[in-house]
Specification:
This protein is of the alpha+beta class and about 120 residues long. The protein has one domain. The chain has 4 helices and 4 strands, in the order αββαββαα. The protein has a 4-stranded antiparallel beta sheet. The two termini are about 15 Å apart.
Amino acid sequence: MSDAGRFEKAKKLESQEVPEWIKGPAIKYRGEIYLGPIGDDHNDVAELVSHARSEFRLEDEKSYRRGFMTSHGRFVDREEATEIALRTNQVKDILRLRGRDPFIIGARDLTYPAEIDR
């Protein structure tokens, strides 16, 4: 498939015509959102942020927010991401997740649509 074809397919999938799904873990820092590659967790994303922004410190948890990016371009917290992932069948092992308190996902609990190149 050509780049233009992939772009159009991704745009169609990301439009409001399809259900919103989780694209991956993200960190919001000083007004910018950093999205990690598929398979990364929030610590991996934090490492990416630290390379992009030398003043970023992982231990300074009040200076940034951990969350997830959705296919509709929204940054959401773990609770809302859990609701979305459950609706779209993105949770890998629901039985393992049920044992958690609180009942929220982590980045490595998700599966992603195969047809998307993020």
